[in-house]
Amino acid sequence: MKKLKNSELERLSVEAFKSVEKTPLIVILDNIRSLNNIGSVFRTCDAFLIKKIYLCGITAKPPHKDIHKTALGSTDSVAWEYAENTADLIKKLQQEKISICSIEQAKKAIMLNAFTPIKDTIYAIVFGNEVKGVSQEVVNLSDHVLEIPQYGTKHSLNISVSAGVVIWDLFTKLKA
């Protein structure tokens, strides 16, 4: 088995990325403080053709060298927008018939592996602050709360890892 070189990967250009059909997923970053986490989420969203990222509250916006360090140019390909208030954004998206899923540990949360997305539905997945998680106000407004099953002692994952797990899971279910 031969390892592929970057030149053999047949990557989309930024222009082609912008015009290709996107996965019906929107990512909302709710008060993320780490610029490296933000950049990592951009890169994951690029990999799985995510429709858009909303950066909310204290979440930093590109251009920034620490976002760029992990985003590796994906801030140029993935559509993004800043929204000051996450709750107001969620209400607006719900009026557009977008289903909101907070990624959080909560009573009556649906385990990610048990969640089946409905075809022809656009989902917005909310990832919360590294310490406080998704705010209770946003959890209350959500149509679903999804939890990543975890079995070790910590019961927490870095937000960029959580985003990778959830985006991959939903991508495979929506593209099946």
Map the helices and strands:
Elements: H1 14-19, E1 23-30, H2 35-47, E2 50-56, H3 65-71, H4 74-77, E3 80-83, H5 86-95, E4 99-103, E5 110-111, E6 123-128, H6 136-141, E7 144-147, H7 159-175
Parallel strand pairs: 1-2, 1-6, 2-3, 4-6, 4-7, 5-7
Written overview of the protein:
There is one protein chain. The chain is an alpha/beta fold and 176 residues long. The protein has one domain: Alpha/beta knot. The chain is built from seven helices and seven strands. The protein has a seven-stranded parallel β-sheet, with helices on both faces. The radius of gyration is 16 Å and the shape is globular. The model has no long low-confidence stretch (mean pLDDT 97).
How many strands? 7
CATH fold name: Alpha/beta knot
Strand content: 15-25%
Cα shape: globular
Helix content: 25-40%
Helix count, DSSP H or I runs of 4 or more residues = 7
What is the end-to-end distance?
A: 27 Å
Highest-level CATH class: Alpha Beta
* Biggest beta sheet attributes: 7 strands, parallel
SSE pattern: HEHEHHEHEEEHEH
Number of domains: 1
Tell me the name of the CATH homologous superfamily: SPOUT methyltransferase, trefoil knot domain
Assembly state of the chains shown:
single chain
Helix/strand/pairing category = alpha/beta
Mean pLDDT: 97
CATH architecture: 3-Layer(aba) Sandwich
Ranges where pLDDT stays below 50 over 5 or more residues in a row are none
> What radius of gyration results from the CA coordinates?
16 Å
